[in-house]
């Protein structure tokens, strides 16, 4: 018998919208621009919607596109007072 303990910040049901998910993590964008390293991880079994949640579509943005939109809006607002260097890593792992 497996005895693993997991902790999650939030679990969304199948009826959650892309915007609902982004609203949950959007505060991390500001933290990122304030100098903190952040990670957003979509975890779940095959076919559960992780890639869709992260990437979305042209008509229904995923977390990645919402994040870039907000990052560049905040950077534009702070222009003249701060300079930023942005580095992004995206990793998708299949079958362990």
Mean pLDDT: 85
Helix content: 25-40%
Low-confidence stretches: none
Global structural class: mainly alpha
Cα distance spanning the termini: 21 Å
If helices are DSSP runs of H or I spanning 4 or more residues, what is the number of helices?
4
General shape: globular
Sheet bearing the most strands, described? Answer: none
Gyration radius, in Å: 16 Å
Q: What's the number of extended β-strand segments?
A: 0
> Helix and strand string, N-terminal first?
HHHH
Task: Give the amount of beta strand, in percent.
Answer: under 5%
Oligomer: single chain
Structure, described:
- It is a single chain.
- The chain has a domain at 18-77.
- Helices cover 38% and strands 0% of the residues.
- It is built from 4 helices and no strands.
- The two termini are 21 Å apart.
Distinctive features:
about 100 residues; mainly alpha; 4 helices
Topology:
Elements: H1 18-25, H2 27-33, H3 50-55, H4 63-77
Q: How would you sum up this structure in a few lines?
A:
The chain is mostly helical and 96 residues long.
């Amino acid at each position: 018998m497996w005895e693993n303990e997991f902790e999650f910040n939030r679990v969304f049901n199948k009826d959650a919208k892309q915007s609902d998910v982004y609203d949950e993590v959007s505060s991390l964008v500001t933290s990122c621009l304030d100098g903190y390293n952040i990670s957003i991880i979509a975890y779940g079994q095959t076919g559960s919607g992780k890639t869709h949640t992260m990437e979305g579509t042209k008509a229904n943005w995923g977390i990645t596109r919402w994040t870039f939109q907000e990052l560049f809006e905040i950077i534009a607002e702070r222009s003249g007072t701060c300079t930023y260097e942005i580095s992004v890593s995206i990793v998708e792992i299949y079958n362990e």
